[in-house]
Task: inverse folding
């Protein structure tokens, strides 16, 4: 998953740069042919945020990364808060989060490291080692018997505090 997301991140960053470049050219566009070409890039109005997420996932699956970036930009305009991220998160991060959440539906404890320059096999082996240690600690803790001492009930002995 980490490798897949890292590759996806690289593709999305290139797409993000291409979209930014297209927007710059859009401001400079004066020719009719170029204006028609830009009109073909119009983003649809999504009826619901769920429909938008599905459209974005379809773009990511079919490697239409520039379309996915345009869709996320439109979704942020339509739904400023929520699953489409806020101003603290880049469009690429939001797209990676949406993809990761969809790919790991129903799985708990899934972790992906994106953008790490380190060898992931070393990190994975360390995580597996830690997981084993935690499992052993839990097993040992479950083996301990809880010993409770029963103190005589003060009301039964007739003393009051």
Result:
């Amino acid at each position: 998953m980490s490798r897949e997301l890292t590759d996806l991140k690289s593709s999305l960053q290139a797409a993000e740069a291409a979209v930014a470049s297209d927007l710059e050219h859009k401001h400079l566009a004066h020719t009719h042919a170029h204006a028609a070409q830009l009109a073909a890039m119009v983003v649809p109005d999504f009826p619901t945020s769920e429909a938008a997420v599905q459209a974005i996932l379809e773009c990511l699956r079919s490697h239409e990364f520039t379309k996915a970036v345009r869709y996320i930009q439109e979704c942020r305009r339509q739904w400023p808060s929520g699953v489409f991220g806020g101003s603290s998160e880049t469009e690429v991060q939001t797209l990676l989060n949406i993809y990761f959440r969809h790919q790991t539906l129903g799985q708990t404890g899934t972790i992906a490291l994106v953008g790490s320059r380190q060898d992931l096999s070393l990190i994975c082996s360390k995580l597996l080692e830690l997981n084993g240690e935690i499992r052993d600690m839990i097993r040992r803790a479950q083996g301990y018997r809880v010993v409770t001492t029963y103190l005589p009930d003060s009301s039964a002995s007739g003393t009051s505090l």
